[in-house]
Amino acid sequence: MSQAKVPAWVNIALIPILNILLAFLVSGLVILAIGENPIEAAGYLIYGALGYNEGIGYTLYYATNLIFTGLAVSVAFKGGLFNIGGEGQAYIGGLGVGLICLSLDHTMPFYVIAPLAVIGAAVFGAAWGYIPAYLQARRGSHIVITTIMFNFIASSLMVYLIVNWLKEDGRMAPNSRTFEENAWLPYLHELFSPLGIDIGDSPLNLAFIWALLCCVFVWGLIWHTRWGYQLRTLGTNPTAARYAGIDTAKVTIWAMLISGGLAGFVGLNEIMGVNHNLLLNFTAGYGFAGIAVALMGRNHPIGIILAAILFGALYQGGAELAFEIPTITPEIVVVIQGLVILFSGALEHMFKDRIEGFFIRRAVA
Amino acid sequence: MTNKTMPHAIELRDISKRFGAVQANKDICLQVPAGTIHGIIGENGAGKSTLMSIIYGFYEADTGHIEVDGKRVDIRSSQDAINAGIGMVHQHFMLVENFSVLENVMLGAEGGALLKGGVAAARVELQRLAKEYSLDIDVDAIVEELPVGLQQRVEILKALYRGARILILDEPTGVLTPQEADHLFRILKALKDQGVTVLLITHKLREIMASTDNVSVMRQGEMVAHRETLHTSKEELAELMVGKKVRLTVNKDEAKPSDVLLSAHHLSQLDSQGVKRLKEVSLELRAGEILGIAGVSGNGQSELLNVLSGITPMDEGEIHFAGQVISAKAPKNAAQMRDLKMAHVPEDRHKMGLVTGFEAYEAAILGYHNSPVYNGKVLMNRKAMLDECNERMAAWDVRPPNPHLKTANFSGGNQQKIVIAREVEQNPDVLLIGQPTRGVDIGAIENIHEQIVKLRDAGKAILLVSVELDEIMALSDRIIVMFDGAVVGELDAKDADERTLGLMMANAHNKEQEGVSV
């Protein structure tokens, strides 16, 4: 009810920006505490992330992963489900991509491998989301618990598969052989250079474009299809969903399939786009960061793109910062990222009531 | 009464409380003499629970104040209430299920950081209390292993342990078997003999007559009468509870009932706890008639609507509808029932009938979202949805006529129009309609009633559930009364008056059915 009098921009823009500013303020205090100049540090961070072409490329490359996982979390969340398993779904999605590339790169051209890899990522990621979804919808096991557990299972499974089956013969490193080049997603700088545009050398690849297409897909799916209507009904009012005759179990399972599939696309960016082999731990926490991205992006694709770029910038700028000021170790950068997640995610409601209250009072007065 | 000269154990002066547009309590005055059992009776939604929450410090009154033993007290939290000697036994117990009785009683009154000393002292005190009030209980039993009646006893002991001299019980018998309920009343008598003042909140007349000294009746947020139990009767209380209001008139001709469109045979339904909420309900619904279901709310009407509309599966019985036999073995869900041309305006539009976070045009297709009218090949046909919503908003005078406004931001009456328009415009054969005018303003009520009659005259069958007797009497052609999940009577609307219906609603019209424990 109180939502009535709060202008939309307060929730969409003001509160997230306030939260980020506060996170930076506290980060500044941390940097001050270790004896460095926070202003200088901020300068390096921002320049590193957005100041030159390569930096921007890296920022967007990180953002690509976060868009996928952020979308994954938001689709599930629209149905009232908390998918904590993006990490595991991304990991297994990467397995799907890797298997396609390893089995076809000697025989098939890129335009056959690429769509199959997309399907492989989606199917494997979705399959990893399906089991917790089934358990929730038909057996009542809580999806938060099962998806967390499935992250661990995914992790163990990948170690087993890579070490025992997929490792390159005669090598110690736990990763597969490198794919042939026809199973690589082209880098965007390679695509742009024939046009005479230099966007700087970075791992940014075609998966970024795919991520943007996925945003459009999710937007259409949730707000413009019948299924999305059912999903949103279930997510906001399960009683009304039953009243409307919506098969809630079925919608729950499909929501997790789509969510898992989206998370699986991280494998496209990492495995096919950058590493060009199947390796351990390439998901590097993107699945979890996706939760913060979705929260901050208000579960809307546009918000998710913006939040993913912010987090991507923190990853990239943070790396630069640690390089430029050696006393600011990578761990401190993780602290800064953690603070942003803390303030924009976990403490999201800290000011919300007060700020909304202020606008409600103003509207009444 | 001997203690009339003493200050009252508790006295309320002009308590008012408003939630948004709803006046939950209005100028409530109440005097409860010490050492008596005082009943507060009223229909669900009459404001009893709000009033008790104010006394116990969950809400603060907008105006008015509370006096305990003649002294004004300021109750802002349940701790204040406990300090003032007020204890409360909630309808839903507030116990930690896997704690022992002793641990539950001590909870919040442990008396120090280390448990040991406190436990020993509490054990002694608890045993003393149990003895003094003859509340036998094994103090080391785990609460979840106790029957419900004993769990309630733990709640009472908990209140007494905290020094309560005034005990509030909110619908205490709702979860009890009749035997347990009788036992409870014996306990309350014992407490009274020890000087404890008891406030008993209930909507069951039998309990009031059986156990109280005085009774106050609430209706629509107001305290409408105080009586000494000895000098009143069930009939009088029933009438006071339901109230005599200006009779609504609806212009309608004689009904011309024809074919039976829907019939229910011995429908039963259990809730998740295994309690039978619907007991062997049978009814017939004919084309061209309005069948009214009267009853104090919470007596199985909601369950009946949910089972008929396919929202909850039945456990026993059959529904014959549109040439189909629907049973526990061959169930149909809400979408399938809709396909058979059954429409349903649910009792609670916020919880069930609408998605309040949706824009109006989206909420206006809930349940019909699969219809080809609203769908293109892949995407939904937003334009069709908006056009139709605009048309309906004009036809039904929904204000403001803005399909993009969030459903939550319409007034209750306009929300209800959105729901009713949605269901009626589908041209159903059978319309189930629950509380059609709850929270709806007078002008809109007339409009809604006219639409219902129009639908009847078009040869549709209408099942109307309402707790408003006026509404039932004004609209129905035939009336069924439900009590405790069962149909307890049926009569022609022409023979119905408030008194008869009120008695039937309290199941007091038929002495044989009443049980022996009064």
UniProtKB/TrEMBL annotation, chain A:
UniProt GO molecular function: transmembrane transporter activity
Keywords: Cell membrane, Membrane, Transmembrane, Transmembrane helix
Subcellular location: Cell inner membrane
InterPro entries: ABC_transp_permease
Organism superkingdom: Bacteria
Membrane topology (UniProt): Multi-pass membrane protein
Transmembrane spans: 12-35, 55-77, 89-106, 112-131, 143-163, 204-223, 251-272, 278-297, 304-326, 332-351
Cellular compartments per GO CC: plasma membrane
PANTHER family the record matches: ABC TRANSPORTER, PERMEASE PROTEIN, GUANOSINE ABC TRANSPORTER PERMEASE PROTEIN NUPP
Listed name of the protein: ABC transporter permease
TrEMBL record, chain B:
Cell membrane among keywords: yes
Major location (coarse): membrane
UniProt cross-references to InterPro entries, sorted A to Z: AAA+_ATPase, ABC_carbohydrate_import_ATPase, ABC_transporter-like_ATP-bd, ABC_transporter-like_CS, P-loop_NTPase
PROSITE patterns: ABC_TRANSPORTER_1, ABC_TRANSPORTER_2
Any GO molecular function: ATP binding
Highest taxon of source: Bacteria
Ranges of residues in domain ABC transporter: 10-245, 262-509
Compartments, record wording: Cell membrane
SMART domains registered for this protein in UniProt: AAA (SM00382)
Protein keywords: ATP-binding, Cell membrane, Membrane, Nucleotide-binding, Repeat, Sugar transport, Translocase, Transport
Membrane topology: Peripheral membrane protein
Gene Ontology terms: cellular component: plasma membrane
Name of the protein in question: ABC transporter ATP-binding protein
Species, as recorded: Marinomonas arctica
Lineage: Bacteria, Pseudomonadati, Pseudomonadota, Gammaproteobacteria, Oceanospirillales
